[in-house]
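Work through this:
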Amino acid sequence: RSFPGRPDGTPTQKIADYFMNRLIPMADMALDFHSGGRTLDFVPFAAAHLLDDPAQQSACMAAMRAFNAPWSMMLREIDNVGMYDTAVEDSGKVFISTELGGGGSATARSAGIAWRGVLNFLKHGGILDGVVEQAPTRMIDTTEGECFHLAETDGLLEPLVDLGDPVRMGAPLARIWPTGRSGVAATEVIARHEGILAARHFPGLIRSGDCLAVVASVLD
């Protein structure tokens, strides 16, 4: 979150400035790989943002579909200030991102999705020759604030739903057990949205304010 950066700033700010003033102006499209970091785990998806410009959003959605992850997500960033995503989109360019698993790890499946996806993306943009490889993908949406469920207490996390499972509004998603003493009831986390579990907290321990779960609407 260092964009637009500074040419005389920290190393990170200098890198952001170089992207902002050198690389982004040269590009027509940008792909930003993510895989959940160490604290989150996701169903494997490619994503495009809701944008004010319908033509730009349509171009981003076409690139997202070309990437052809098992899931394709429309999303709205809760806070997009200083992000690479925002810098590219504000320049009028095509931008997509991914979340391909998580927990600070990779699997044979997630690596395969990444390889096929980036080759598809480059073929879609006319950078590589060849036909985009298509497989079934399902559209999901996390543009509603109620999709995001944050922990309201510290403790040991007991998941009650697995990634990709259907979620009913009002159903329990998880329990948070206090670690300070025994004999105390767990705090139950209730789903405020209906869809599928698209993301979950990965470590066994959770703290108040951490993202516990993301429930995505299924569009098709």
The mean pLDDT is 93.
